[in-house]
Specification:
This protein has about 90 residues and is mostly helical. The chain has a domain of about 60 residues. Helices cover about 65% and strands about 0% of the residues. The protein has four helices and no strands. Helix 2 crosses helix 3. The mean pLDDT is about 85.
Length: about 90
């Protein structure tokens, strides 16, 4: 018997993120973190950049480092730029 795998249906990240918002809000409330600072799209983009530019296992490390930097008062966009710069190969 041959099993066929149908292609994944359209991936709607925005709809999935809306479904995740309740979980994000609950965790943020328990941690005392304002949930409006959690931008899932930005976190996913940073993970993608690091996973493809450095190594996949470092993607969650990069988002942790982003959180630590922002938690210590660094501007989010500056922290993103710094981390992304380390994920981009330097061409001579």
């Amino acid at each position: 018997m041959v099993t066929t795998v149908s292609p994944r249906e359209h991936h709607d990240l925005a709809a999935e993120e809306a479904g995740w918002r309740g979980w994000i809000d609950a965790v943020c409330a328990d941690l005392g973190v304002p949930s409006d600072v959690v931008d899932v799209s930005v976190i996913h983009e940073l993970s993608r950049i690091v996973a493809h530019g450095v190594a996949r296992p470092l993607a969650p490390v990069s988002t942790f480092l982003l959180g630590v930097a922002v938690g210590q008062g660094m501007d989010r966009d500056a922290a993103l730029a710094c981390i992304a710069a380390h994920a981009t190969p330097v061409v001579d």
